[in-house]
Amino acid sequence: MELGIEVIALLMAVAFVAGVIDAIAGGGGLLTIPALMAAGVPPVHAIATNKLQSSFGTASAVVAFARKGRIDFRRFARPAVGAFIGSAVGAWVLQRVDPAFLAGLIPVLLILMVIYFTVAPKASEEDRHSRLGAGALVGIVTVIGFYDGFFGPGTGSFLTTVLVALFGMGLVSATAHTKFLNLASNVAALVTLVIGGQVLWAVGLVMAVASIAGGQVGAHLALRVGGKVIRPLLVVMALALTLKLLADPDNPLAAWLLG
Predict the structure, then answer these.
(1) In the structure, what pLDDT confidence band is assigned to residue 206 with cuts at 50, 70 and 90?
(2) Whole-prediction pTM
(3) What is its main location (predicted)?
């Protein structure tokens, strides 16, 4: 499909802002997927094309964090493989079943995440003792990777919350490693969706250019201001995603709440 120059420019602007948000707290898909659909892109193609542009933006953020020495690639190599495999399976399943039933569960998980960051003691910028072992980290990340490939919204927020709450990481460190894990899951889902012929390459690549720039800006902001911005932005993005999901009359939880 072909889009006008004005629409392309708007999508690039949205991708830049989403790249900044993604690098700091995750949730950039809240902006890019609705923008693509508003431009007339069908839902599955919108999700696939978003994976293309966000993969570049996430990779940009990973490079920025890695240059500052904030990513332990050796420790997180196995979890990244788990995220890749889980996401590939999730994206494969996505193309064969209706993911709508998950939409009712995700708002509940997001609200729990908001409660955690609201009532939990202020997270340290330094890593603390992990409550769980390396095997648990691989297993949990694999499950979240499956979710990213199958559905997607909030993946970065979930990963950051898990790394802080269960594995004792400081917010900046958790954010940096979330980008690495999210890159693995994004690439896996992208490859699977490319094989399925779902990606709009021209649109996705021009958005990717803007997303790369946004990812660099967001990563530098995260390193500069740390938890002062990350924590409240995680809460805001989680609440925004919850409201967006519940605003859909087809959402099972929304339908139940409305009786």
Answers:
(1) very high
(2) 0.80
(3) membrane
